[in-house]
Design brief:
With 45 residues, this protein is α+β, with helices and mostly antiparallel strands. The chain has one domain (6-39). It has one helix at residues 14-32, and strands at residues 6-9, 36-39. It has a two-stranded parallel sheet with strand order 1-2. The longest helix has 19 residues, at 14-32. The mean pLDDT is 93.
């Protein structure tokens, strides 16, 4: 059976949240190899 991996990141808040995502997301995606990445950035402004 094939796997479908979802990486979900919730509640990215402000500039610190954006910087954390910018720093950490590439490594997370490389390690976890998701088919779909969802990021809740509604509070990122």
């Amino acid at each position: 059976m094939d796997e479908f991996r979802i990486l979900f990141v919730a509640d990215v808040v402000g500039h610190p949240g954006r910087e954390a995502v910018k720093a950490l997301l590439p490594a997370l995606k490389k390690e976890l190899r998701p088919n779909l990445t969802i990021l809740n950035g509604e509070n990122a402004a």
